[in-house]
Amino acid sequence: MCGRYAITTPPQAMRELFAFVEQPNFPARYNVAPTQPVPIIRLESGKRHFALVRWGLVPSWVKEEPQSLLINARAETIAEKPSFRGAFRHRRCLMPADGFYEWKAMPKGPKQPYYIRRRDGKPFAMAAIWDNWMSPNGSEIESCAVVTTEANATLRDIHHRMPVILDEADWDRWLDPAATAKELAALMKPAPDDLLEAVPVSDAVNRVANDHPGLVAETHVRLPVVEARTAAAPRKQKPMDDRQADLF
Questions:
Q1: Do the Cβ atoms of 147 and 125 come closer than 8 Å?
Q2: Of 40-44, 68-72, 240-244, where does mean pLDDT reach its minimum?
Q3: Alpha helices of 72-207 — where are they, by DSSP H?
Q4: Can you give the pLDDT at residue 1?
Q5: Residues 212-236: pLDDT tens digits?
Q6: pLDDT the model gives residue 233
Q7: Second-level CATH architecture of 5-27+34-100+125-193
Q8: Where exactly are the structural domains of the chain?
Q9: Is the pTM of this model over 0.85?
Q10: Helix (H) or strand (E) run with residue 55 in it
Q11: Runs of H (alpha helix) within the chain
């Protein structure tokens, strides 16, 4: 986590909530994936600014673009890991979201996707870091990664990690370049158990090309059917079958 998310709040409402200078006009996205441009809010000259950057951090000091995507940064090690510590100290940002997806392993069959959102339906800010990398040919890539922590009680049954969701009262502290390591560490914690809800959704979200409102609509989870036994109608015994068992 986090590997897919949605941002659907209209641009003007997003601008009013996050109080950034620009007036961007970006469409609703229901299935944002790594490598795609994503909106962030960062502090420049004491004011909040909106920017579109690539999701998948490229540290400024690397000589070549990494083959593996750094889409998440663990809160427990972000201050020490070479890939993240510079951005963590100097280039923190907010990633607006209306919800994110996670997949739960089922007893049988494929994983079940869940859409995780605030219970009150409001957008929220994920803690993130960004960096600016210049390639050998002179082109620049601004990129970001979501900060993650251990899952809270609400999500623990689905996945063991979750994004750090910052309380609105802590946005300024996260963006503040003068914030201390101790102050920042206190912010990187699981969300309150009653903040979020997880609803099962269609596996259409598995395909990146799908990007529509139907992806966040709650759907029925198919669970194994257990046949009840009664004394009056005992279950009929099947004859032995020595063929190879089905794989699916």
A1: no
A2: 240-244
A3: 85-90, 171-175, 181-187
A4: 55
A5: 999 999 986 543 333 333 334 444 4
A6: 42
A7: Alpha-Beta Complex (3.90)
A8: 5-27+34-100+125-193
A9: yes
A10: strand 47-55
A11: 11-18, 85-90, 171-175, 181-187
